[in-house]
Amino acid sequence: MAASRALPLLALALSLLAVASTVSGHNITQILSDTPDYSSFNSYLSQTKLDDEINSRTTITVLVLNNAAMSSLAGKHPLSVVKNALSLLVLLDYYDPLKLHQLSKGTTLTTTLYQTTGHAPGNLGFVNVTDLKGGKVGFGSAAPGSKLDSSYTKSVKQIPYNISVLEINAPIIAPGILTAPSPSSGGLSNITGLLEKAGCKTFAGLLVSSGVLKTYVSTVEKDLTVFAPSDEAFKAKGVPDLTKLTQAEVVSLLEYHALAEYKPKGSLKTNKDAISTLATNGAGKYDLTTSTSGDEVILHTGVGPSRLADTVVDETPVVIFTVDNVLLPTELFGKSPSPAPAPEPVSAPTPSPAKSPSPVEAPSPTAASPPAPPVDESSPEEAPSDSPTSSEESNAKNAAFHVKAPAALLFTALVAATSLLL
Questions:
Q1: Which segment of 6-15, 258-267, 282-291 scores lowest on mean pLDDT?
Q2: Whole-prediction pTM
Q3: In what residue span(s) does the FAS1 domain sit (predicted)?
C-alpha cells in the first residue's frame, strides 16, 4: 500500500528533475567540446561570439559542421563573413530528428539567426527544410531557385524544447553571403558617418574635436565595441556641463564609451563580470557592469544606468550600439546619491484612561473604547515600504525562489516517497 502511494511521488520527483535540468540552460561550447571533430566549428563560434548568442536563447537548433565540412569556410573568408555563414546554421526553432521527419506538407521555411542581424536582404535569412523521405532531410537557402545542397547526417544532442544540435554535411550558402564586405573594405572606416546617420552627431563631433576618433580607428582592425549616446541623451536632465571638464577628462569620458574587445549583444546578455573600457588604466577602473531585462541589456556605471537601444553595425570584430543615456563614470562624477532616509513614523497619541463611571449612572457601551494597540516604531524604520533596498531584497528573494524551487520540490518529493517506502 505504501509502495503504491509512493509511486506518484517518485514520478513527480523525476518530472521535477527534468524541469530543473531544462531551467539550468545550455552551453553550446561544452556540448561540442566532447567531440574533437567539431573543434573548428566550435572555435569559430567562440571567435565570432555566436556561442554567447546561442547560449542566451531557448527553443533553438544548431546545425553543426565537422572539421572536414568546415574547411570550405575556415581561413578562406573574413571573420565577419564566416559569422554570417554560421548564423544561417542557427535555426530559431526546435527541430529534433523526429520533428524533421514529421514536417507539415513535408517542407517548411524557418527563421535563422542571420535574419535577425539586419544583414540578410529579403528572405535570405530563412532556411528551407525538406523531408526527402527514405530517412533523408535536405537543407538549403530559402532564396528562389536554391538547391538543397546540405543534408542531415546525425543527431548530436537534444535538451528537449530548449536546444537541439544536429550535424549536416555541408554549409548552407545563401546568395551573396560569402561575398559580403569585410570591416576593412566596408564603411567601418567612416565611424563618424555611421554615428551621424544613427542620430549621434554630438558624440561624433566630440570624438573628432578631442582626437579620440584616432584611438577608435586604430582599434577597428582588432576588436572594438562602441556605446554611442544619442543626441537626445546629451540634452537629458542631469547630464553634466562637458565644457567644464578638462581636456584629459573629456578624453577619458569618450574612451569610457568604447571597449577594446568585440562584445555583441549576445555576449553582453551573458556577461557576469565587470568590463574594462578604453579608459581603464592604473589610475582608475573606469569599468562597466551589465544586467538584462527580458531581451534588453542595461549598462551600469555606478552613477546611473543606460539602455542598449539599437545596433548601428555588427561586423566582426566591430560592433557599434546606440545607448539612451550618456555613460558617466564614477571616477569623474562620483557615485549615484543614496536614497533619502524615510521619515520617522508618527506615533498615535496614547488615549487617556477612562474615568470610573458614576455609581448613579451606568456607563454607555460605547463610552469607553479599549486603548489603541501600541505602534511598532521599529518596523517602519527598518524596512520602509518605498525603500529601494526593500524592493531589491524582495526581488532577490523572488529570484532565489525561482532558481531553487525545482531543487527544493525535488528534495521534498524524494523524502516523502522514501518515507512511504520505508
A1: 6-15
A2: 0.65
A3: 25-172, 187-327
